[in-house]
Amino acid sequence: MTTPGDEPLAPPPRSRHLVLFIALVLGVGLAIGYLTAPGPWYLNLAKPSFTPPGWVFAPAWTAIYILIAIAGWRVWRQDSDGRPMRLWWIQMVLNFFWSPIFFAAHLPGLALADILLLLGTILAFIATAWREDRLAALLFLPYAAWVTFATALNTGICVLN
Q: Is residue 94 exposed (0-12), middle (13-18) or buried (19+ Cβ within 10 Å)?
């Protein structure tokens, strides 16, 4: 018989893991955005006519990062070492490298290579997750659309400059 207080600790509820995923993705994403904010170099670049105003990017990425985190949490719960989770981590690395490459290093060509790999990885995640967790795959659709648009912007900047 155990006395009160001797019971083993229960594992943390799944919602705590979701909060950790959101904090990680949103925290790192926003920190990178803050540290590599567009400066005079970017402002002086020729940009495609379809470039949105700067204020659009922070709310768009905030919403997308939350969707990315939820999708990652969902596939992590099913198989933390599975192919969807590995693709999830790869796309996070590629995502987080793009801003420093583009805005800090001023290398739009290398950033274009990064974003093309990112888009391919996002699409691979969607295809792979679709078989195991359709909701996780669907959560990546806005991300795929936004990164497709960002790829067009990055391409336009490379061509115009």
A: buried
Burial 64-83 (b: 16+ CB within 10 A, else e): bbbbbbbbbbbbbeeeeeee
Enumerate the H helices of 12-107 as residue ranges: 14-35, 40-43, 57-78, 83-99
Q: Is 15 exposed, middle or buried (0-12, 13-18, 19+ CB in 10 A)?
A: exposed
> What pLDDT is stored for residue 11 in this prediction?
47
State if pTM tops 0.90.
no
Q: Looking at residue 4, what is its pLDDT?
A: 53
Give the integer Cα–Cα distance in Å for 41 and 44: 5
Cα separation, 82 vs 80, whole angstroms: 6
State the Cα torsion 54-38-112-152 to the nearest 10°.
20
Rounded-to-integer distance, Cα 81 and Cα 137, Å:
17
Copy the structure tokens of residue 12: 């943390």
Distance between alpha carbon 91 and the CA centroid of its chain, in Å?
Answer: 7
